[in-house]
Write a structure and sequence with these properties.
The complex is a heterodimer of chains A (about 290) and B (about 325).
Chain A lengths: L2 H27 L4 H15 L2 E3 L11 E3 L3 E12 L2 E13 L2 E11 L2 E10 L2 E5 L13 E3 L4 H9 L2 H10 L5 E5 L2 E7 L7 E7 L5 E8 L9 E6 L16 E6 L2 E12 L11 H13 L1
Antiparallel strand pairs in A: 1-2, 3-4, 3-15, 4-5, 5-6, 6-7, 7-8, 9-10, 10-11, 11-12, 12-13, 13-14, 14-15
Helix pairs in contact in A: 2-4
Chain B lengths: L1 H25 L30 E2 L13 H5 L1 E5 L2 E4 L5 E5 L10 H4 L6 H5 L14 H9 L1 H4 L18 E5 L2 E6 L11 E6 L18 E7 L2 E7 L20 E9 L2 E9 L8 E2 L3 E4 L29
Antiparallel strand pairs in B: 1-5, 2-3, 3-4, 5-6, 6-7, 8-9, 9-10, 10-11, 11-12, 11-13
Classes of the chains: A alpha+beta (about 290), B alpha+beta (about 325).
């Protein structure tokens, strides 16, 4: 073999190896190809029943499919962990995405105590309510500011399956699609108040989101390290909407159990759920801002 | 020798072409721009003898006014930007959109598939602009909405009332009064034909306690610059104040409607104040009507209302 031939052969092998490495690396890192993104996110949204045709009653040209999930309420029964201790409880999460807000009410008994908490968040405001809507009308209930938990509560909203789809779409070309152990995985950064948190969601063969993990850039922010597992998807609504919700929800916070409930009731028909911020909570937030 | 040279050439070509392919893939397919946005106004705004805009006309030129099925999306306060994007009008929040499958039309469920099913029910309330009731009424609003098939006054042939009736299809503007006509809509929104005669002669409201509550209330008009303001009170409680949502009100409801004409378009908003039940006044998302392009257009006969046999209601699904 001539020197020239040997050189060509080595060059060919080198080039082929480079291409192979490049391809493998690309697959491992995931793709931001919008065509693949669109297919995967559309598939996930469709599995949840989150997108519908939007031109009923119109004679305009056909409109696109729209994300129709704005407000929803999911109730369940099971174990809720308070200060690390399990409480047999009913759990009701009422939530909205425009604007982002969530009210989690827990009623239960455990360790000889009756538990009743209502934890609410709306955008940057977080507060605890002695009753739903406390603090909005003078003399009716008490709203206690809880600003330190605003991010953690807000993150609970975005790790719900509908939140994952919305946030992944909002992430645009920062969302990557990859494959791990045969499952499709969506990875994307959150923005706004939750900038610096990366969400990784795993889809099953039917495109349902089955596992969600969050990771903050700041390792010290342990209240932003969630793991959620969703299974037994179905339309659990009394009013049928074809919006699918998980029949079993398991959540961990910073590796410790937080929630393990079976769904008992879902209202996905964009029910009337509102989250006005009580004046004393706004004032406390403003004061905290001015003293910083 | 030739084989190795070919390999080299092929490998180099693949390496060079691959990024190009990726770049091509990264370019989003050509975006189309279907939208539900109101048409841009055309023409000049005619003026009445007193110099104010003349609102006289038949305002059903958009072709999608209520004829049985409400324009859920517009009423919901959502604007479609293009086939990949929409937004909530009240907050500007982006709402995800996806191009619809080729060949699918809403009118035929067979082609719409699951993504057309129960769409109307969900689309009713996608937008965020909801009135904020006092907390003690939150469950009641929800109960009314959940049970709208039975509870909605329009299913019992009640007049839609003000402000639910929205923009009148016919306006006659006289120097001292306005005449508004709202034809009965039949179909799914089964309301009666309704009219209002609204004075614009500078009179004051009758004291609320002296008024018998009515569906349209006592409306009095005045001009705020080029915007017509209709201030109404004296309502009964047999109506909801928006097309959907179970938004009941008390006898103390006070509404302020604003009509602004620009060329062949008429923009309408209403602010509802009802301090007994609402935590704060609520202002609707603006709606736009278009003038019928035929200057001689007549208003068609209103469709008769056919009352539902509520005893046959077997589902809570909305339509």
């Amino acid at each position: 073999m001539s020197t020239k031939t040997r050189t060509l052969r080595i060059s060919a092998i080198a080039l082929a190896s480079m291409f192979l490495c490049w391809s493998v690396a690309a697959r491992a890192q995931g793709t931001t190809d919008p065509t693949i993104q669109l297919k995967v996110l559309r598939g996930a949204a469709a599995a949840l029943g989150q997108i519908r045709m939007s031109d009923i009653g119109m004679t305009n040209p056909p409109l696109p499919l729209l994300d129709v999930v704005t407000t929803m309420e999911i109730s369940g029964k099971g174990s809720v962990y308070i200060d690390g201790k399990p409480v047999n409880a009913t759990y009701t999460a009422a939530f909205a995405y425009i604007p982002p807000a969530m009210r989690v009410e827990i009623k239960g008994e455990g360790a000889g105590n009756t538990v009743h908490t209502i934890q609410t968040v709306r955008e940057e405001y977080a507060w605890n309510e002695s009753e739903r809507g406390a603090g909005l009308v003078p003399g009716k209930g008490m709203a206690t500011p809880a600003m330190a938990s605003a991010k953690s509560r807000l993150l609970q909203l975005w790790i719900l399956p509908y939140g994952v789809v919305k946030a992944a779409i909002a992430a645009g070309d920062k969302a990557t699609i990859s494959t791990a152990q045969g499952s499709t995985v969506i990875t994307f950064p959150l923005s706004g108040a939750l900038a610096g948190v990366t969400v990784t969601a795993t889809l099953d063969a039917k495109n349902f989101i089955t596992r969600v993990v969050t990771k903050p850039d700041n390792a010290a922010a342990t209240d932003l390290v969630y793991e959620a597992e969703y299974s037994d998807y179905a339309d659990h609504g009394e009013i049928l909407t074809d919006v699918k919700s998980p029949g079993h929800i398991v959540e961990k916070l910073s590796g410790k159990p937080l929630l393990d409930v079976k769904t008992t009731k879902v209202d996905a028909d964009n029910p009337y759920l509102v989250f006005p911020v009580p004046p004393n909570v706004k004032a406390a937030c403003a004061q905290a801002g001015s003293s910083r | 020798m030739r084989f190795f040279r070919s390999c080299c050439t092929a490998a180099a070509a693949v390496l060079m072409v691959s990024p190009a392919v990726l770049v091509a893939q990264n370019a989003r397919p050509e975006t189309r721009h279907p939208t539900n946005a109101a048409p841009k106004p055309t023409g000049t705004t005619p003026r009445a003898a007193d110099g104010h805009p003349d609102l006289t006309g038949v305002w059903n030129g958009k072709g999608d006014s209520l004829t049985g099925v409400p324009n859920q999306l517009e009423n919901s306060g959502v604007l479609v930007d293009d086939e990949y994007s929409a937004h909530d009008i009240a907050t500007g929040t982006k709402i995800a959109a996806f191009p619809r499958p080729a060949g699918s039309t809403f009118g035929t469920v067979a082609t719409a598939g699951a993504e057309g099913e129960r769409a109307a029910s969900l689309l009713r309330l996608v937008g965020s602009n909801r009135p904020i009731y006092k907390p003690e009424y939150w469950d009641e609003v929800r109960r009314l909405d959940d049970n709208a098939n039975e509870e909605d006054p329009s299913n019992r042939c009640m007049p839609a009332g003000i402000p639910r009736a929205g923009i009148p299809q016919s306006i006659t503007q006289l120097p001292d009064r306005f005449i508004f006509i709202y034809p009965g809509q039949g179909g799914l929104i089964a309301t009666q034909t309704m009219y209002r005669m609204i004075p614009a002669d500078g009179r004051q409201h009758t004291p609320l306690q002296k008024l018998d509550g009515s569906f349209t209330g006592e409306g009095i008009a005045h001009w705020d610059g080029d915007t017509l303001v209709v201030d109404s009170w004296g309502f009964n409680t047999n109506t909801w104040f928006d097309q959907v949502g179970g938004y009941f009100h008390s006898e103390d409801m006070h509404t302020i409607e604003r009509f602004h004409r620009e060329g062949n378009t008429l923009t309408w908003t209403v602010t509802v104040d009802d301090p007994g039940v609402l935590l704060q006044p609520w202002t609707s998302t603006p709606r736009v009507a278009v003038l019928n392009r035929d200057p001689h257009a007549m208003l068609a006969e209103g469709l008769p209302c056919s009352e539902r046999d509520l005893g046959l209601t077997v589902t809570k699904e909305h339509h």
